[in-house]
Amino acid sequence: GVSVRILVLQDTNPSSSTESGQTSSTEPGLLPGETVVREGKAAILFPSANEVFYNPVQEFNRDLTCAVITEFAREQLAQRGVRILVPGERDRVVVRLSEEKNGTEHQEASEQPEKEQQHEEEGGKKEYITASVGERCEQGLRVLEGLAASGLRSVRFALEVPGLKSITANDYSAKAAALIARNAQHNNVSHILQASQRDASMVMYEARGKKERYDVIDLDPYGSPSPFLDAAVQAVSEGGLLCITCTDMAVMAGNSGETCYSKYGSMSIKSKYCHEMALRIILHSLDQRAAVYQRYIEPLLSVSVDFYIRVFVRVKTGQAVVKNSASKHALLYNCVGCGAFHLQRMGKKMSQGKHMKYSAATGPPVGPNCEHCRQRHQLGGPIWAEPIHDITFVQKVLGAVSGNPTRFRTSKRIEGVLSMVTEELRDVPLYYVLDHLSSTVHCNTPPMLQFSRSALLHAGYRVSLSHACKNAVKTNAPAGVLWDLIRCWEKSNPVKRERLSETSPAHRILSAEPTLQACFEIREDANPQSRKRHLTRFQENPQANWGPKARAKAGGGISSELEDKRKQFQGKRKKPITDSSQLKSLPCKKLRKVCPLNYNICSVFKIMRSCCY
Which one GO biological process term can you cite for this protein (predicted)? Predict the structure, then answer.
């Protein structure tokens, strides 16, 4: 069993009592018309209520980034003799009694700072400089936010992440740069945070040749970050951290594979595992661009949540390691009928004594048609085929967040997502979806614990869930084993085969007899710890019409809300237009001369035209 005792001694986090996203216009010190939005410890000013570009759904993104950068700073600054102090970390005593391996590792991670301090106090050999939040640390990290907008993220870094030397909040807009400076002054962080009005790529390109490059670069653009990746992999310091967000999920999920190839050098395909594939596409693009400069990436954490993906990677330099780049990437063969997939590595390496020999890979791993349903294959990729998380680092972040739950408003969700990340199979790319497996053969969907967990474990294979999809089945079992389990399940839950077409994937899969006998008895180890503890793994929709906000206007301000546009143009092709202001005014090709009747409605196109010739 699991026994958990948590003793809260004192809450020193002032932000825990403040509702994030709260808007106010009566705070002292505001200029006429200004509005303030609160998140975490930051209070962000906007010129007026009509120009508030703030998405509360992205608070999880910003909270997670603060947690990751804090642990990254803890690791990096410990080598420089600096100890960071996070408010609330010393005020909790967590005692966890568990025989589970995951629980033990989780407790060790949360108690690690205390053990290090005790060891150093006993030894007394090394003296540390302490760094607190809001203070400038001369040996600290240099941070760049390339696309800062209002500066909310950078202000939160300055107020919530200790051990920072400087923060550069850059934006190309003059209004945004002025707003960043105003917010830095309002939050009393001008000694750490500097506003910049320049092209983000140029800021990073100019830093690539300097001795002190940026230790942390955060890019959170509207849409694709591809225009900034080449500069980012050069401007980050040795062993530095890149934090990249992609919100162009329609492109990365297979709706426009040709566009995805032009941006990331990878062909996306429509599939059930598209969210993890999107993570592997951006990691492939980062590693490929870094390899040009004899650099390579080490993914620390990669998450797919809500409407975007977010990756945290460490960038290092090494010509010998770069030679392994081809073997880290793979092409993807996906069956359009049943969804079975196979990976084809781009290269291979073999050990020859003390040296490694690199050569092209041999393939393909599949025939022209799928062996299960005899449908054709789609070719996607290349994608990153190595692990997308550093479990040791993730456990440190998880231990810090769970040990200080009042630090972030989204701590419960961070704990749930990171717990699932630690449970994922590291060496198994992509996943199957249980709903899709059953719908392919038109049978009832089996219970998750009974089928995808217990049956695969009984068959001798490893299996886990995925944070990217609720009904994901991540396993090292080949597709043939999964279809054998489906065939065994269908025998006890038969479908009407007379209704199946002989050329359909369902008929061809069910017509073959299973080569193994499935055992659907539920095992004790089938239920993962994150599910047993009822953690917030997949949150429900946070609010109505949630999602990405409208793009900011080039001249300042924000565009109309997407919901307002939907209401305005709903049924526009069916309803007759009675208001002439809603009709387009364009030169009419049929009216080359001045119309004697002063008609400005084209009789051919039925569109309001301006007779201007």
Answer: tRNA N2-guanine methylation
Which distant-in-sequence residues (6+ apart) come within 8 Å of 365 by Cβ? 333, 342, 343, 344
- Contact predicate 137/82, CB 8 Å: yes
Hey, what amino acid is at 130?
T
Q: Residue 90 — left, alpha, or beta (φ > 0 → left; ψ -120 to 50 → alpha)?
A: alpha
The model's pTM is 0.83
Q: Which of 531, 417, 136 is nearest to 408 (CA)?
A: 417
Provide the H-helix boundaries in 334-478: 391-403, 411-423, 434-440, 456-458
Q: 91 in helix, strand or coil?
A: helix
- Estimate the share of the chain in helix, then strand, then coil, as percent rounded to the nearest 5: 35, 25, 40
pLDDT score, position 1? 38
Report the amino acid identity of residue 165: K
Residues in the chain: 613
What's at 491, amino acid-wise? K
In sequence order, what E strands does 47-102 have?
82-85, 92-98
Distance CA 74, CA 84 (A): 6
What are residue 610's phi and psi, to 5 degrees?
-100, 120
pLDDT of 469-503, one tens digit each? 989 999 999 999 999 999 999 998 889 888 899 99
Do residues 142 and 136 touch, judged by C-beta distance below 8 A?
no
**Does residue 212 contact residue 185 with C-beta atoms inside 8 Å?**
no
Which tens digit of pLDDT belongs to each residue from 517-571?
889 998 888 888 887 777 776 766 666 655 666 655 555 555 555 566 667 667 7
Give me the DSSP letters along 463-474: EEEETTEEEEEE
Give the closest residue to 305 by CA, choosing from 154, 395, 418. Answer: 418
**What are the beta bridge partners of residue 196?**
170
Q: Where are the beta strands (DSSP E) in 47-152?
A: 82-85, 92-98, 129-132, 136-145
> 210-263: per-residue pLDDT in tens?
788 999 999 999 889 999 999 999 999 999 999 999 999 999 999 999 999 999
CA angle 332, 335, 338 (to 5 degrees): 135
What is the distance between the alpha carbons of residues 164 and 77, in angstroms, rounded to a whole number? Answer: 10
**β-sheet bridge partners, residue 318:** none
Measured CA to CA, the distance from residue 366 to residue 379 in angstroms comes to: 11
Per DSSP, 601 falls in state B
Distance, in Å, from the CA atom of 277 to the CA atom of 474, rounded to the nearest integer, reads 13
Q: Where are the domains of the chain?
A: 431-532, 576-613
Could you report the per-residue pLDDT of 79-120, keeping only the tens digit for each? Answer: 999 999 999 886 443 333 333 444 444 444 444 444 455 544
